[in-house]
Amino acid sequence: MIPEYIKSIKLSDFDYHLPDSYIAQEPLNKRDESKLLVYDGESITHCIFKELPELLPPGSQLILNNARVIPARLRFFRSSGARIEVFLLEPMLPHAQMELALRVKSKCVWLCMIGNLKRWKNDEVLSIKLDGENATITLNARIYSREEQLVELSWDADHSFSEILDIAGKTPLPPYIKRDADINDLTSYQTVFAKMDGAVAAPTAGLHFSREIFEKMYAKEIKTSEVTLYVGAGTFAPVTVQYMIDHPMHAEMISVDKETIENLCIDQTRIAVGTTSLRTLESLYWIGVKISRKEADPLTIEQLYPYSFPSPPLSWVESIKIIKEYMNNHGIKNLLAKTAIMIMPGYKFMSVNGLITNFHYPNTTLIMLVAAFTGDNWKDIYKEAIENNYRFLSYGDSSLLWNPRGNPKKQIINIK
Asked: What is the pTM of this model?
């Protein structure tokens, strides 16, 4: 049974006025020089992001999303000169698993967003010429399914699809950045710890971290663990319903290795770097619950699954230890799962004390997650950010938010 209060949560509950001038169009020259708003559960202070190591308790653990952005934007031209833009979302054939899909040679099919689709005829093959090391490569595109916006891509070289994208693709900047991607975005729209190719949007909370920050954190014995959530374009999808329960969340793939599962069993202060890391961690908790209940398809978390329980049935550590045992019993070194979890006010967070995140668009599932984490105080946090000229969204400034029940400095809660 879904609680009645969940059914009554409206899109309009997460509205605020964001002037266009506050949306950052360019990254800072030094990524760790961004502003950092710190909310301790009661009050707000203003810092610079490079001060972060001094703001975290010694011995705490940061969880990072190591997804790497692929150059997912392809531009083709019809013989008439009309531009057709293909924005890759997720692989479909011959592999739906991202790591395998990027190794494919010769031909593949992807779910896409297609700009100017109505000008592209069903039987029309679009081509672009690419400069390979030894010869010119031809990349072809044709509509595989107009209704589902599936595109078949093929090429005439012994290259993996990842290699083709490196030559042909452009950095997939978000739609609210009103400029074309340039060569600088290849590095600035990528975290310094990015490893796993497959995201079509950056886990932007991690963009502020520099090598110097990690060195200072290690000196304070602040540990890091990595998870992977392949950020999809669904993160930019507008919410068009009145009640949030009616919004269909876009499912995303997550990947967590055994070492991280081991680290997550340790009782310590944990801080998620970004909403994607937090969604991954909370999804892990519910995967452990599903395994404990011997449910079918335990590695898929539906968007409203957590709300079918009147209270969390396990502690955090109990759930993660169940996953650890499951991986050992099944010989799994890397847990692959899918999540569409929707985090709304009233949700009880099980995984972390703190969240590092950028400032999000009004009327989105991201601002709703922040509202769930901080309570109604999110309105004061955003009002303070606007009054102090913070930069918003992907290339904007950052915040360190302690859950009102979870700030270890106030010793309000000890997550077990």
From this structure: 0.92
